[in-house]
């Protein structure tokens, strides 16, 4: 049997599309990949972390292109196995947020995204690291992480659930004080952005560049409830950096210390650290992505 040269990793649970729909996208992908000269193979993930296992195997086998059909969680699990390798990541964004794909201006239509993932060329981008965890889009502490935790508890994913969860979280959430590079600061949230948005065109760092060797450290101060409408408008209008409540600082690294074990998110997936301190660092030119 011919050696596989392209692996598709498909999360059956990403976003709101049915498994039958994803099966149709797989068939389309296999067909155009063969037409383009690849020997493709597709695998559904069966458990959290499976995408990392499949991508690690793909690298070991010398496969040079791994295409995900999924959201930012699947993207992260796959991309972390491709870090500093010659294997490029193709993205077919069918998740709830699709932050990295939107930042990179990849097609959001699945068939067009598949064509891009097969015919596009690899470019090199930076990634970030929060303690030992890799991220490619954003990581965060405070409100972002709280929303990620609440969203992960919902039985149904997709944008409407995300909006409902964020709205409810806003009323329950209390800002906290953190030490940022040794300086105490009361914050609503701290986001460290490699790409500029959380997903769904919610731009926390409008000028972020995935290939500049820097991360954008975004500090959002606590704000009165009366300001939420304008802040939300600015978030989606790509002008949040013009708000007096937000400071964006490009940096290679930042150290955050909280009052106890830190709840963070990594590309939208929540994670409770077993330490009160997080060191966030850029890893320049560490991932090949198909554009
Ligand atoms: N078969 C599976 N069963 C349960 N969980 C899975 C399975 N396969 C993957 N996962 C988990 O599903 C999580 C969410 O997937 P993904 O990010 O692709 O979709 P999403 O959350 O809808 O999109 P986005 O991250 O863009 O909001 C991943 O972090 C992964 O660990």
Walk me through the topology.
Elements: E1 6-10, H1 19-35, E2 40-44, H2 50-60, E3 65-70, H3 72-82, E4 88-93, H4 99-103, H5 110-119, E5 122-130, E6 133-135, E7 138-142, H6 143-152, H7 159-172, E8 176-180, E9 183-187, E10 189-193, E11 215-220, H8 228-237, E12 246-251, E13 253-257, E14 263-266, E15 269-272, E16 277-290
Parallel strand pairs: 1-2, 1-3, 3-4
Antiparallel strand pairs: 5-6, 5-16, 7-10, 7-14, 8-9, 8-13, 10-11, 11-12, 13-16, 14-15
Helix pairs in contact: 1-5, 2-3, 6-7
Q: How many distinct helices? A: 8
**What small-molecule ligands were found?**
adenosine-5'-triphosphate
Mean pLDDT: 96
CATH architecture annotation of the largest domain:
Sandwich
Brief overview:
The chain has 291 residues and is of the alpha+beta class. Helix content is 30%, strand content 32%. The strands form three sheets. The chain has a six-stranded antiparallel sheet with strand order 6-5-16-13-8-9. A six-stranded antiparallel sheet has the order 12-11-10-7-14-15.
Explain what the structure shows.
This is Diacylglycerol kinase. It comes from Larkinella punicea. Pfam families: DAGK_cat, YegS_C. GO terms for molecular function: ATP binding; kinase activity. By secondary structure, the chain is α+β, with helices and mostly antiparallel strands. It folds into 2 domains: 6-120, Rossmann fold (3-Layer(aba) Sandwich); 133-285, Tumour Suppressor Smad4. 30% of the residues lie in helices and 32% in strands. It has helices spanning 19-35, 50-60, 72-82, 99-103, 110-119, 143-152, 159-172, 228-237, and strands spanning 6-10, 40-44, 65-70, 88-93, 122-130, 133-135, 138-142, 176-180, 183-187, 189-193, 215-220, 246-251, 253-257, 263-266, 269-272, 277-290. A 6-stranded antiparallel beta sheet has the order 6-5-16-13-8-9. The radius of gyration is 19 Å and the shape is globular. The model has no long low-confidence stretch (mean pLDDT 96). Adenosine-5'-triphosphate (ATP) is lined by residues 11-15, 45-48, 50, 70-74, 77, 95-98, 157, 199, 268-269.
């Amino acid at each position: 049997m011919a050696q596989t040269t392209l692996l598709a990793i498909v999360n059956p649970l990403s976003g709101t599309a049915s498994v039958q729909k994803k099966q149709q996208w797989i068939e389309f992908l296999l067909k155009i990949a063969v037409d383009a000269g690849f020997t493709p193979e597709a695998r559904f993930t069966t458990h959290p972390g499976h995408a990392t296992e499949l991508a690690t195997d793909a690298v070991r086998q010398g496969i040079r292109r791994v295409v995900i059909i999924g959201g930012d969680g699947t993207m992260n699990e796959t991309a972390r196995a491709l870090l500093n390798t010659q294997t490029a990541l193709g993205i077919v964004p069918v998740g709830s947020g699709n932050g990295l794909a939107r930042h990179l201006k990849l097609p959001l239509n699945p068939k067009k995204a598949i064509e891009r993932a097969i015919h596009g060329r690899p470019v090199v981008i930076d990634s970030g690291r929060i303690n030992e965890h890799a991220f490619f889009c954003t990581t965060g502490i405070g409100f972002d992480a709280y929303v990620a935790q609440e969203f992960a508890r919902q039985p149904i994913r997709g944008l409407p659930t995300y909006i409902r969860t964020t709205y409810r979280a806003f009323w329950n959430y209390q800002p906290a004080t953190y030490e940022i590079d040794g300086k105490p600061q009361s914050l609503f949230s701290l986001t460290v952005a490699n790409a500029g948005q959380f997903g769904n065109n919610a731009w926390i760092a409008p000028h972020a560049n995935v290939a500049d060797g820097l991360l954008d450290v975004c500090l959002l101060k606590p704000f009165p409830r009366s300001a939420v409408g304008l802040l939300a408008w600015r978030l989606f209008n790509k002008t949040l950096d013009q708000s007096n409540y937000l400071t964006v600082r490009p940096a290679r690294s930042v150290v955050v210390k909280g009052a106890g074990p830190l709840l963070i998110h990594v590309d939208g997936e929540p994670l409770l650290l077993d330490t009160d301190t997080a060191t966030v660092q850029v890893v320049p030119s560490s991932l090949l992505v198909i554009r």
